[in-house]
Write a structure and sequence with these properties.
Blueprint lengths: L4 H37 L5 E6 L2 E5 L5 H13 L18 H4 L1
Antiparallel strand pairs: 1-2
Helix pairs in contact: 1-2
């Protein structure tokens, strides 16, 4: 244990945050795989194009918007049984700014 308070605090934050961030990364990867499988199985034209931290960006055809909203929400919120439910918000727009 460091006598330097800042160094000690940094170490404590890392010890707490690393397992949480790693678990979140695992969950989103699992959700991405499940979503990709559903896109293929259901022969949808929409595509997953980008992941940024805990966000996924899709290119969605106009006639698949409602299907994709339900599919993505279901797969992300139910990726794994959790004591505290995962909440997913969905935004739609012609670009990332509009969707946010």
């Amino acid at each position: 244990m460091s006598a330097n308070g800042a160094t000690r605090n940094f170490g404590e934050r890392m010890a707490v945050n690393t397992p949480i961030q790693g678990s979140a990364a695992d969950l989103i990867k699992m959700a991405m795989i499940n979503i990709d499988n559903r896109l293929r199985k259901e022969n949808l034209k929409s595509m997953m194009i980008l992941q940024v931290h805990d966000e996924l960006v899709f290119e969605v055809t106009e006639n698949e918007i409602e299907i994709m909203k339900g599919l993505v929400k279901k797969e992300m919120e139910n990726v794994m049984p959790m004591a505290v439910p995962i909440k997913v918000d969905i935004g739609i727009g012609k670009n990332w700014r509009e969707a946010g």
